[in-house]
Amino acid sequence: MMMEEATASTSGSSEGILVVVERPLVVEDLVVPLVRVQSGGDGDGERDDASELVTRGDEDSEDRVAAEVSPWGVLVHEVDEGQPCLTCKDKCPGFSPHLWRKVCNNCKCPRESHDVYHEEFVNVRDRIGIKPDPSNQTSKEKTLQEGYSWVPPGLSSAKIEEYFSQLPNHKVPRLGTPGEKYRDRQLIVQLPKQDLALAYCKFLERECQRSFEDFVNARNEIALDIGYVREALEKTQECFKCGGVLPSGELAVIAPKFGELVAWHPACFVCAACQELLVDLTYCAKDGHLYCERHYAETLKPRCSACDELIFSGEYTKAMNKDWHSGHFCCWQCDESLTGQRYVLRDEHPYCVRCYEQVFANSCEECSKAIGIDSKDLSYKEKHWHEACFLCSKCRVSLVDKPFGSKAEKVYCASCYDAAFASRCDGCGEIFRAGTKKMEYKGHQWHDKCFCCCTCKNPIGTRSFIPRDNDIYCTTCYEEKFSTRCIKCNQIISSGGVTYRNEPWHRECFTCTNCSSSLAGQRFTSRDEKPYCAECFGELFAKRCTACSKPITGIGGTRFISFEDRNWHNDCFICAMCNNSLVGKGFITDGPEILCPECARQKLM
Question: CA spacing 20 to 30 A to 409: which of 9, 293, 499, 595?
Answer without folding.
Answer: 9
